[in-house]
Amino acid sequence: MTSVAAPAQHQQAPQPDAHLEAGGPAGTAGSTRGRTIAIIVLFLLIAAIGTALLAPKPPVTAYLSPASTTGTGAEALADILAERGHPVTVAQTVPSAVTDAAAGGTLVITSPQNLSDAQLGSLSRVRAALLIVQPTSASLAVLAPELSLAGAAPAGTLTPGCTLTAATLAGSIHSGAAGTLAGLAGAAHVQQCYRDQGRPTLVQLPVNGRLVTVLGSGAPLSNASLGAQGDAALAINLLSAGRRVTWLVPSPTAAAAAKSFTSLVPRTAYLVIAQLALAVLLLALCRGRRLGPLVTERLPVVVRASETAEGHGALYRSRRARDRAAAALRAAMLGRIGPAIGLPRDAGPDAVTAALAGRTSLTPEQLAALLYGQPPGSDQELLELASQLDAVEGEVRAL
Q1: In whole angstroms, how far apart are CA 201 and each of 153, 159, 162, 248?
Q2: Is 176 exposed, middle or buried, given 0-12, 13-18 or 19+ CB atoms closer than 10 A?
Q3: SS3 254
Q4: pLDDT tens, 333-391?
Q5: CB of 335 within 8 A of CB of 343?
Q6: What pTM was computed for the model?
Q7: In whole angstroms, how large is the CA radius of gyration of the chain?
Q8: Backbone angles phi, psi at 340, to 5 degrees
Q9: For residues 281 and 261, what is the distance between their CA atoms, to the nearest angstrom?
Q10: Phi, psi angle pair for 144, to nearest 5°
């Protein structure tokens, strides 16, 4: 059996320099510096967590929240309604508001911009009367589709200008900056009050069998404006129509929880990320290590060619890689006899078998099976293949 072996190397292993041995002063200093940095980072992390856990909880400051005592809260109005026999139930989630609101009551919706389309759809099926404060186009499209936003009105004193009982009893109000409404001009079933330049800031109309009131400004309900002119009377009259009041105060994360993360990321953020990725790629190309020509290195030990061949054979045998072993034997034999018969390295099977047929006792078909046939199925067949290849090589070289 002919073996394929690498040429023996006889270089000696270079001796390592004494000052580069591991465990020297440089290694000790580096490890000490690394431990110091790790301790500092751990201390800062513990301090940040402790500060976050021990920080006092901020007071409730949600806009028009019945639990907030700030100027933009509505605790004063909630207390007045409770004293008049209309208890106020605060709901911070849409499911709890839908469960609590019932026919004969009133559902107050503040900050509708914090509600998703699906949440607005759930609220549209509530049978209680609705009071929508400072609506958005999306909330009107679902809860009061006959109305739309028309513009904005500055803060100032507004008069009722309608026949709505709650407005006529309250009289003039000091409204904050309000959104004006449009739609159903002149319709008998729609009450349009507190106009600014002909456009109402309060509209009341029946929608799907329930009464819907849309208030363009939240000032009449707030603690700061409740004592101004008829603001308190208007708020109390609007909310006293039902037996009980459910007050929905959605948090800014309410709509975010119903949306995917990708929908919450603005388009400009993706542009910034793309620019940063491009900058990192360009920096990597500029600073990256370029591959130069191959550098030959001395082998650390002397390896005999026979040991390399034996090692390859052991690997082939342990993995039962007879196909690779047969391919190596065939390629080595053709590489040795190819120059002798004038065959180039890229000669095809037909050219090889035709050139060997005239120099051996085998037919082209037998040569094709020997050189390009199926790999041997057992170790015995592999030995027979090696023997036949040696015989063919011997015939060629004997000529």
Answers
A1: 8, 11, 12, 21
A2: buried
A3: helix
A4: 888 888 888 888 888 888 888 888 888 888 889 888 888 999 898 989 989 998 999 99
A5: no
A6: 0.51
A7: 44
A8: -70, -30
A9: 26
A10: -145, 70
